[in-house]
Every structure is written in structure tokens, then in C-alpha cells.
Amino acid sequence: MELLDNLLMGLSTALQLHNLLFCLIGVVIGTAIGVLPGIGPIPAVALLLPFTFGLSPPSAMIMLAGIFYGAQYGGSTTAILVNVPGETSSVVTCLDGHEMAKQGKAGTALAIAAIASFFAGTVATLVIAVLSLPLAALALKFTAVEYFSLLVLGLIAAVVLAHGSVAKSLAMVLLGILLGLVGIDVSSGAPRMTFGVAEISDGLDFVPVAMGMFGLAEIIANLERPAMTRVVSQSIRSLIPSRADLRAAFPAMLRGTLLGSVLGVLPGGGAALPPFSSYALEKKLARDPSRFGKGAIEGVAGPEAANNAGAQTSFIPLLTLGIPANALMALMIGALMMQGIQPGPQIMREQPELVWGVIASMWVGNLMLLVINLPLIGLWVSMLKIPYRLLFPAIVLFCCIGTFGIANNLFNVWLMLGCALVGYFFIKVGVEPAPLLFGLVLGPQLEENFRRAMLLADGDLSVFLRRPISATLLAIVAMLFLLMVFPTIRRSRQDALAE
Amino acid sequence: MNVRRTDWQDLLFGLFLITVAGIALVATRNLSGGTAADMGPGYMPRAIAIALLAFGLWFGIRGISRPFLGIAPVLARPLLAITASVAVFALTASRLGLALSSFAAILIASLATREARPVETVLFALALSAAAVLLFIKVLALPVPIWPR
Q1: Domain residues of chain B, as ranges?
Q2: CA-based nearest distance A327→chain B, Å
Q3: What's the structural domain count of chain A?
Q4: DSSP codes, A40-96
Q5: Residue A358 belongs to domain spanning
Q6: Which one in B51, B80, B81, B127 has a CA-CA gap of 20 to 30 Å to A190?
Q7: A381-429 pLDDT, tens per residue?
Q8: Widest CA span of chain B, in angstroms?
Q9: Record: contact A414-B48, CB cut-off 8 A
Q10: Which residues of A are less than 8 Å from B40 in CB distance?
């Protein structure tokens, strides 16, 4: 009953009073971020990173995780009431959720979304707990050779499964790795590409990079678009769904949870893939597909469940192997490193309290979200009335103070500004910045493991193919590349990602 | 009929990659590369810079040969206002203190949109910089002065 022991140990960490408090702060901020369109969870997490330095590692991770899955909850509220996705992940919820709201069933839609999310969150927590053990056991066999192959797989899979052009994403990963190499070389002590700047001799901080590219660049681009006027007209009558509604929603919820749990684990699957796939599945399975887009309750329950399950299971690769499944998880790795914890296969053995505490806190956090979201829905709706013209200067200021706060030097603020301009350029030329973040965070480990593996194998590259685990991982990489070459599969990928 | 060519998005991204690769190659020219079995500090940066160079050339050539694809026009107002706001904060925070610096940053940032209303903006900037001082200096003990030294 190792599983039970582990979960109990996690619960005892998660239920400590201060951890409960940080979990609550996390999910409240997350919900707020989710409700407000125009701020994603990535800049929010980056912004809050400096505040977590003083906390113990479990508290810090519990709070940051809460922001992430809290944002998934909040996003659906905006989608249903205003027909604007609060987050990319809730685009699908707009379709049927807003239609239900127009028919006067806003309360039912909100309640179903929250219940589906809670159900999925609970199941996904169990999935994480069950899957973590065998993965961690596998991870014990890893040497530098296997770890290098695993990092390659993580980076490539993230590129192949994410949005946009694969070639551009690959170039961005390389660019990120190059930026990750800036600073003093650990084994020789030689400064590399520092241009004599003392502040970057320890490497580029990833927080200013993330805040510049995801936060500020997005703001500049948002301001170029004509202002949207958002109207929240629907009044919410009853929050309690009828028995018939629940019966219709439950199978969709179950399927969505399963689908989301599987897709969430895949690197790059992250936010958008699970809800889209679930919506497509529900439409295919429905007896009368024409109801979809006109307020079908399955169209809310399935994607919402998939969304939350995926958000949570995307922690599996991070917690067991130290590989991020999406850009946000890359930030989490950065947060761990700032706490002095080296993410990697050894993390479960060395930091069981942290890993299981975070897992257990997700269940606690989901329970909190149910309470925060349903009775307090009015509060979140009123937040939607804050105009963007007040919101964005506040974000700019907090980005400045936040980056300053990481190392108490103003160089990071300049770095953030530079990254904002580069990020704006990336938006203009249609390139996704997320792969760069992956490369930046994983680059140093990639180099270190490659060097160590080459040293052990005396410069013989074939070592990566002679070790069975490493060979399997690289075979999957090769398969992913082959899949990209076949046009039919490429087309179906585009269909799946098309909005 | 003159068919317009050049995918500017690809071309500019390609040129950007070539520039970065060039800078990296120049910056690491004095680092020893070592051998595959015993890599020096220059091995990985150089390998990656060369790969980036290849990507850059490929995007650049593809961009020239592809049909026309423009770039959405750049609006000067948001770009300049946000840049100026962050720059002013970075220049003044340690000398003028967080209170004045935050106030100035918010005022400049809100110039990014035509929608800004003067009175509302000033009041909001006052409230927000007060909140920032309270939160960051009083609660989180960030080592910056509140007022000019």
C-alpha cells in the first residue's frame, strides 16, 4: 500500500495550515487570471515567482500549481457569460456554454462546468498518484545517456504537438538552448557569451525572459487590436442543475476526463488539445450532432473535464522525470531550480514530501475551487467590468517590480524590456515563443548530460542507440519526425488544432 | 502580370536567426571546442549556432521564394509607450524611489491607448503606486527606497 502511504504523506503536507493558505491564494489568483481575458497563467506565474523565494519548496509549488489549474476554472466562467475565452483552453466552452447562457441557462452551464472540472480534477489527481510510482521506478535506471535522450524527446514532442510551424518551433528551441548556455561554463569556468556583463555570468534568468515575451509583448500586441466592449448581460438564476442535466452530462464528463488525462501527459499537449479533442469526440458520439453549437450540455461538460484533467496530468512528466509538458511547466522547473532543487528523475526519491504534497494539494485545491467559484460567481463577474485601459498599466508595473525583485537588480528589468521587443517581433513574424522557453530551461541540463554521456562513452555517439531505454526514447523521436512527414497525419493535426 | 513574392514573416525570422548565430559565433570564437569525448566550453554553443545559421538560411531562402505574405503594421503608440514606461522605471527606481518611479511608469504606460482618461489615470496611478509601496516594501521588504535619496 505504498500508494496510500504516499497519498497520506502528501495530504499531511497539503493540509498544514500555511500550505492550505498558499493553496487558497494560488487558486484565487488563478481564478482571477482565468476570468480576465488578456492575462494568461504564464505571466501570472512568472510574476508571482519572486514572492515564492521566501517560502519552503512545497508551499511555493502548491501555490504556483494552484494558479495554473485555478486559471482553467476561471476561463470557463468568462467563456460562458461573455463568449470570450478567458484562456485559450476555454475556446471550446464558448461554443455551447455561451449558447446555454443565451437560453437563460447560464447558471446550469456554470455549475456543470465547475462540477465537471472538479470531477476531472479528482480523478486526475488519482491518475497522477498511480502513474508516478512506475515512472519514478523507471527513472531510477536513468544515467546521463538516458536522460539526454529523454530531454531530446521532451523537446521534440513539445514542438511537434504544439501550435504552429514545426520548423519554426525547432529553430526556437535551438535559440532557447543557445540562450540557456549564456554564462560561466560549469566545467571549465570560462565565461560564454556574457559580453562582459557581470549580471549574466550565472546565466540568463528565465523570469525576465518569460515576462517580456509572454507578458509585455502580449500587452503591446493586444493594444494594437481594436478594443472589445464586453457585455455581461446574462443574469444567473439557478445554479443547481436538474437531474436530467446531470444524467446527460455525466458520461461526457467521464469520457472527457479519460481523454484529458491521457493527452495531458503528452509534452506540448497542454492546454488546447484536450478540450478540442473532447468536443470532437462528443459530437461524434452524440445521437443528434446538430444540437452541438446550440447549447448542448455535453459540449460543456466533456471539454471542461478534459481541460482540467489535462492541466493536472501535465504535472506527471514534471514531477517524475523533470521534463515539462508545456511552457508553464517549464516555468515550474525554473521555480524548482530557484529553490535549489534540481528537477530530474531523482526528484521523487529525494523530495517525496514536495511531490506528494503538490499532488495532494491539487485535490484540496479543486475542492476550494468548487466553493470559490459557485457561490462567489457574482464577484468574478464584476471583475470582468474592470476595463483593459486600467488593467494593462498595472500589469506593466508589476512586471517591472517583479523582475527587479528576483535578484534585486535593475539589469533584469532591462533584460525583460529587450525580451519584450524580441517577443513583439516574434508575434509579428508569426512565431510561437513557448518552445524558446523550453530550450532556455532545459538547455543547460541538455548540455551537461550530453557532455557527461560523451565522456563516459569516449566520444562514441552510438552509445545513445546501444542502451535499450535510450534507444526506445530516440525511436519515439524518430517516429514523431516520420509522422510529420506524412501529409495525411499533418492535415489531421491541423484539423485538431484549428480553432 | 507581376505576381508579388516574398514571405516577409519567413524572411525576417530567417535574418534574425542568422544575426543571432553570427553574434554567438563571434562571441565564442576564443573558447576552445575540445573533442567529442572531452568537450570544451565552446563545443555546444558553436554546434547550436551553426544549426541556427542553417535554419536562418533556410527560412530566408524559403521566404524569398514563397508567395507574398506581409506583416501586420506596427503601431508606434503602444510599442513606444510600454517601452518608455519600463525604461523609465529601470532608470529611476533606485534613485527616485519606488513611489515616484511607479507613478511615472503607470502614467507613461497608460498613454499606450487613446482610451485613457486623464483624471481617472492620475487617480489610478496614485492608488496603484501606493499599493505597490505597501505590498513590495512594507510586506515583502524589497530593498528599494520609497522616496528620492
Answers
A1: 8-65, 76-139
A2: 21
A3: 1
A4: -HHHHHHHHGGGGTTS-HHHHHHHHHHHHHHHHHHHHHHHHHHSS-SSGGGHHHIII
A5: 2-497
A6: B51
A7: 777 777 788 888 888 888 888 888 777 788 889 999 999 999 999 999 9
A8: 69
A9: no
A10: 188
